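tokens incoming
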């Protein structure tokens, strides 16, 4: 990506040259969906689609952010607690405000303001973590430009805090962790309970990952995401009557089966079954990846989609059409929805020489069935948020 475009836009907006530029990726998740807030494992990676920023310092105490994705809308606010309240008219600025508030709380008050021009090529609301990308971007801008020291895992936690306490989404840590901690050509095997993690090389041989966006907008905060979190908490509470556990990620399917009588509610049992089985699948998938057993990895990824459809009920016809159509194509190892669900995106792992044909065929079926087109992106796996 040529950063000249960013610098030019910065200068056009703020009438002065930019000091520095930054990039923050989006993420995909190979497997481990809706396991993060259940203290389970995830296996995501950072992708080359993401958010860029150009930065310039100011001598006053104002912060001005211009978004190239919001018709060059400029929002200006003063540093200081009261001005960092939520802005009801410009929802996009709240990710910046939350992070600026929490990073200051964690370190020290900012002693001057700044200007920021932000632009991203990550489709917004497509389940590829555009919000975590922004949160980690502003986190990096603050640590670099104000010489603040925040450990990158802690920064991911501040991003999660922004979602949970500022935005109002009860999300887990996966997205911010993947975006900030990503490593080129590797996926991150993360235990969300202990935050212990390992990088595993993404050895897919002659296969590549294709991202398929449904182009159906999903608003996580307005959707049933928070309901799923609550349902899992209820199921955990019921199990805690007899089991010394903190999260659903602490048990396997056998234990869940044995104690399922405590849950005794069809919906809660289905939610728990997904959280527990998905965590086990994720562990097995990383073993399959290390053993270079791609067939097994593929079966586990397909099974993840089935579980998200039947037990977790977060797929919907758009994501199901993409996954089910993908499964029927030549040269396809596997496919499944990723992220929160209810729209957003799916991934497919496809033989490199079949990718074009795959996109045409799946695209045609999708458009015929759903009534509008899906978008396809070939993902490169890149490093986490950094200064350019
Ligand atoms: C969203 C959330 F932000 C993540 O924390 C995670 O729960 C994911 O949905 C589902 O795995 O992206």
């Amino acid at each position: 990506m040529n950063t000249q475009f960013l610098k030019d836009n910065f200068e056009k907006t703020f009438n002065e040259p930019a000091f520095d530029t930054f990039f923050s990726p989006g993420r995909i998740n190979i497997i481990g969906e809706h396991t993060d807030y259940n203290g389970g494992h995830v296996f995501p990676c950072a992708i080359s689609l993401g958010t860029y920023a150009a930065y310039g310092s100011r001598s006053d105490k104002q912060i001005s952010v211009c978004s190239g994705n919001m018709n060059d809308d400029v929002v200006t606010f003063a540093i200081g607690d009261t001005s960092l309240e939520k802005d009801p008219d410009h929802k996009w600025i709240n990710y910046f405000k939350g992070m600026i508030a929490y990073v200051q709380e964690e370190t020290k008050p900012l002693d001057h303001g700044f200007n920021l021009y932000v632009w991203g090529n990550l489709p917004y609301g497509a389940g590829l973590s555009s919000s975590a990308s922004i949160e980690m971007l502003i986190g990096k801008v603050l640590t670099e430009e104000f010489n603040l020291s925040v450990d990158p895992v802690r920064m991911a936690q501040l991003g999660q805090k922004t979602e949970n306490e500022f935005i109002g989404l009860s999300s887990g840590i996966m997205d911010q962790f993947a975006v900030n901690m990503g490593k080129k050509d590797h996926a991150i095997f993360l235990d969300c309970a202990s935050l212990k993690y390992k990088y595993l090389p993404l050895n897919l041989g002659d296969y590549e990952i294709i991202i398929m966006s449904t182009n159906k907008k999903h608003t996580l905060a307005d959707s049933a995401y928070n309901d799923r979190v609550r349902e899992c908490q209820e199921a955990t509470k019921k199990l805690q009557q007899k089991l010394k556990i903190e999260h659903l990620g602490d048990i396997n399917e056998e234990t869940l089966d044995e104690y399922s009588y405590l849950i005794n509610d069809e919906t809660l049992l289905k939610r728990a079954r997904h959280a527990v089985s998905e965590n086990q699948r994720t562990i097995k998938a990383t073993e399959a990846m290390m053993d270079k057993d791609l067939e097994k990895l593929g079966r586990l990824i397909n099974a993840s989609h089935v579980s998200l459809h039947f037990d977790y009920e977060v797929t919907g016809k758009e994501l199901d059409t993409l996954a089910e159509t993908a499964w029927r194509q030549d040269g396809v190892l596997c496919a499944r929805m990723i992220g929160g669900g209810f729209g957003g995106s799916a991934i497919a792992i496809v033989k490199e020489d079949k990718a074009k044909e795959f996109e045409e065929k799946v695209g045609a079926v999708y458009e015929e069935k759903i009534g509008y087109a899906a978008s396809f992106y070939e993902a490169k796996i890149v490093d986490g948020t950094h200064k350019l």
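note: The chain has eleven helices and 13 strands.
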